Backbone:
């Protein structure tokens, strides 16, 4: 490893440490709040509800809003999938040269598409008067950060000379993630579980109906 | 510049708001507050937006306003850098703005939850905001008066009991005439029965159900208290618990096996799903009259003739009974057994639109114009279904759809499942 690589990898590691601390802080502060569980006798199934929340409940064909906003929905799915893939990719980057060429090309292309879709996110946010009104500086900063992060993930997959830049950006992104808008990445799972538990228990979430 | 008196008052109000907010934000609400990314995908899911497409009518707008208050109070980044997370107003400005938003522009219908890719429960956020508004004196007076009236009724129940029994005698006669059975009864608060039936304040929630319960040879007694609970609309847990507690105590005193809630959306949801959070495990079962009627039809305890109801008929899912209560199939099965020409509103069930008057909106006369506008989508749905008879299992929805019929010239009758079943009785 060169000095530059060592320093930038160090920045990524510091970012990861802040990320972990931030995640622990968020989880702990959430756990300190009370949880009022449903206690009434069940009508449906909480377990089935959670399963529904992570499957049919997310399926675009079963969601009126996704059918209306299918471009935004599809964009969101592609970008978020890309961001999740960057996690194992980031861990694997010190051994990037050992990665099979076709996989690297695929990742470079996929992350590149995600970065482009990140830019599309900017224009969508600016184009819609409602979104423009309510968007915060944090929204734009977070979107920009993730877009550059994905662009550098793409560049580094294409050429290892971009690794130091990718690691620096990774450090910044990881350090910011638990404190700004990006923290929705962890609450997403909680939210789906709550929806599944509550409405599954009440028998509201149907796989099919009469 | 504010006078010192105003500053003290404001400070007190803000302190109260902060405390109530903190108490009411549990893990579920905190998650809803933290998850939204303002993507706008939920926009069209709201019936307010469908009727008047302005940004203030989007779920993400109203939830974002509450989020600003939340960040003001509890988010370290929001406290340190308010503009960074979108806080533009002072806390006092937000508070007064939010009271209106929480009570007049959201019916807590939960439709947007299922439109959101994350499942953000904006209705739960607004419920908390209603609690904050109530505690700081910003809630609509009418809802408070109705909640207090329910509590006063319990305190003076002996004064009401004899009058109520006299009134019910007249209804009992109607039931006997309909059934051709002079032994048909409407027992009031009698011990030794299996079921305590909890009505609303209105004969239409007593007589038809009495006819059906008698026809099914059920062992039942009528309760003194109504299932409605206006403190639930205020998100006032102390008063809400007390109002529901009247029915719980009555059921315990009578030693019944089941409480059966009448066709009342929030009344059912409160008794069925919320009561055990307040009172712990109940020694009896809670069901809706819809579930009971469905069983009677299935078990052959009542026989219905669909040829007695020939009007094109549709069913409006009350948000509380359907989306929040899981009762979709039971009313449909009874209606199909009782009406010849049944047709669905599109969309329905989980994606059903609110009638536009839920969560107490119907109780406030000043909001008539708001709810007529908010119900536009429902009116369009009813119109395109071609139905002449709209069945709904919630008194709020019933009143609203009748008003919508007049306002939009729908020319439909509105009725309940029980009334339809009575008409179809063989």
Residues:
């Amino acid at each position: 490893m060169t000095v530059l690589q060592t320093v930038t990898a160090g920045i990524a590691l510091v970012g990861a440490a802040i990320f972990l601390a931030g995640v622990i802080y968020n989880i702990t502060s959430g756990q300190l709040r009370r949880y009022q569980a449903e206690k009434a006798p069940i009508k449906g199934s909480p377990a089935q509800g959670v399963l529904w929340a992570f499957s049919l409940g997310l399926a675009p064909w079963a969601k009126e809003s996704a059918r209306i906003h299918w471009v935004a929905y599809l964009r969101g799915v592609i970008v978020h999938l890309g961001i999740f893939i960057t996690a194992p990719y980031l861990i694997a980057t010190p051994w990037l040269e050992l990665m099979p060429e076709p996989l690297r090309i695929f990742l470079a292309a996929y992350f590149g598409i995600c970065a482009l879709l990140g830019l599309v996110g900017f224009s969508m946010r600016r184009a819609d008067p409602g979104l423009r009104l309510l968007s915060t500086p944090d929204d734009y900063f977070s979107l920009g950060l993730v877009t550059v992060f994905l662009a550098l993930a793409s560049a580094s997959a294409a050429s290892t000379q971009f690794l130091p830049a990718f690691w620096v950006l990774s450090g910044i992104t990881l350090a910011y993630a638990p404190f700004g808008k990006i923290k929705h990445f962890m609450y997403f799972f909680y939210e789906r579980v709550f929806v599944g538990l509550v409405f599954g228990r009440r028998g509201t979430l149907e796989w099919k109906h009469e | 510049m504010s006078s010192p008196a105003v500053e003290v008052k404001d400070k007190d109000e803000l302190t109260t708001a902060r405390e109530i907010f903190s108490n009411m934000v549990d893990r579920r609400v905190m998650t809803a507050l933290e998850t939204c990314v303002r993507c706008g995908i939920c926009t069209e899911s709201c019936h307010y937006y469908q009727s008047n497409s302005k940004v203030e009518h989007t779920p993400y707008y109203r939830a974002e306003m509450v989020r600003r208050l939340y960040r003001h109070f509890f988010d370290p980044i929001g406290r340190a850098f308010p503009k960074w997370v979108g806080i533009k107003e002072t806390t006092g400005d937000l508070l007064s703005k939010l009271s209106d938003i929480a009570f007049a522009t959201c019916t807590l219908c939960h439709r947007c939850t299922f439109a959101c890719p994350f499942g953000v429960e904006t209705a739960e956020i607004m419920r908390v905001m209603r609690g904050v508004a109530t505690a700081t004196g910003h809630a609509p007076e009418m809802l408070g008066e109705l909640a207090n009236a329910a509590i006063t009724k319990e305190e003076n129940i002996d004064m009401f009991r004899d009058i109520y029994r006299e009134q019910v005698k007249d209804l009992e006669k109607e039931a006997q005439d309909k059934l051709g059975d002079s032994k048909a009864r409407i027992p009031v608060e009698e011990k030794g029965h299996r079921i305590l039936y909890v009505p609303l304040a209105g004969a239409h929630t007593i007589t038809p159900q009495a006819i059906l319960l008698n026809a099914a040879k059920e062992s039942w007694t009528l309760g003194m208290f109504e299932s409605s609970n206006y403190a639930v609309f205020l998100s006032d847990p102390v008063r809400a618990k007390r109002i529901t507690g009247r029915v719980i105590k009555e059921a315990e005193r009578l030693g019944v096996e089941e409480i059966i809630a009448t066709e009342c959306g929030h009344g059912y949801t409160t008794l069925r799903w919320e009561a055990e959070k307040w009172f712990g495990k109940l020694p009896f079962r809670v069901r809706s009259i819809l579930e009971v009627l469905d069983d009677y039809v299935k078990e052959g305890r009542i026989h219905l003739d669909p040829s007695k109801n020939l009007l094109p008929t549709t069913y409006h899912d009350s948000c509380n009974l359907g989306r929040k209560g899981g009762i979709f199939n039971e009313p449909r099965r009874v209606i199909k057994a009782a009406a010849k020409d049944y047709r669905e509103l599109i969309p329905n069930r989980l994606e059903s639109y609110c009638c536009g008057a839920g969560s107490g909106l119907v109780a406030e006369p000043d909001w008539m114009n708001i709810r007529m506008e908010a119900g536009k989508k429902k009116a369009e749905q009813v119109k395109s279904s071609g139905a002449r008879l709209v069945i709904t299992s919630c008194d709020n929805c019933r009143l609203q759809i009748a008003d919508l019929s007049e306002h939009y010239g729908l020319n439909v009758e509105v009725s309940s499942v029980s009334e339809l079943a009575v008409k179809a009785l063989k």
In short: Residues 122 and 151 of chain B are 30 Å apart (CA to CA).
